[in-house]
Amino acid sequence: MRGVVVLLAVSVGAEPLPLSLKKAAEIALAPAGSARVQLAREAIAQAKARQSQARASLLPNVDGAMTGQNFTRNLKAFGIAFPAVPGFRPADVVGPITNFDVRVHAAFTVFDYAAWKRLDTARHGAHGDRGGRG
């Protein structure tokens, strides 16, 4: 048989706390206040993030890469054989060779109607403008 424990808290003679309109507004607007205010702030932050994402597709894109290597090559392994010259024997192994490669690529979209529409939609969402909808 399970035991059931019931706790009952009764405040005898407790008076209601005085609450003015100013105090109620402070509680509602406090960071730990109204859940609706917190949700509204989060929705605004999300809308601003969507606006930044939509704007990113209109900005230039720059990529870069850099590689570096230090290597030796066996020319015979590549099928390269130099003819023997009397008194001189060409090397079979060449190196060490140090090679650096740096590349930069930039791209910019001149006009993308769909991206402009996505940005416009995101801006309306960030400003709370429903544009006659719903």
Gross morphology is elongated
Q: Biggest sheet: strands, sense, closure?
A: 2 strands, antiparallel
Strands of the largest sheet, in order across it? Answer: 1-2
**Number of helical runs?**
3
How much strand content do the residues show? 15-25%
Q: Cα distance, first to last residue?
A: 57 Å
Oligomer: single chain
**Alpha-beta content class:** alpha+beta
Give average pLDDT, whole number. Answer: 78
Number of strands: 2
* Proportion of helical residues: 25-40%
Number of discrete domains: 2
Succession of helices and strands: HHEEH
Question: Can you tell me the residue ranges where pLDDT is under 50 for at least 5 consecutive residues?
Answer: 129-134
Give Rg in angstroms.
36 Å
Structure notes:
This protein folds into two domains: 22-59 and 110-134, no CATH class; 61-83 and 90-107. Residues 129-134 have low confidence and may be disordered. The protein is built from three helices and two strands, in the order H-H-E-E-H. With 134 residues, the protein is an alpha+beta fold. The protein is 34% helix and 22% strand. A two-stranded antiparallel ribbon has the order 1-2. Helix 2 (35-56) packs antiparallel against helix 3 (113-127). It is elongated.
Descriptive tags:
single chain, 134 residues, alpha+beta, two-stranded antiparallel ribbon, 3 helices, disordered C terminus
Topology (SSEs and partners):
Elements: H1 21-29, H2 35-56, E1 61-74, E2 93-107, H3 113-127
Helix pairs in contact: 2-3
Short description, anyone?
The chain has 134 residues and is α+β, with helices and mostly antiparallel strands.
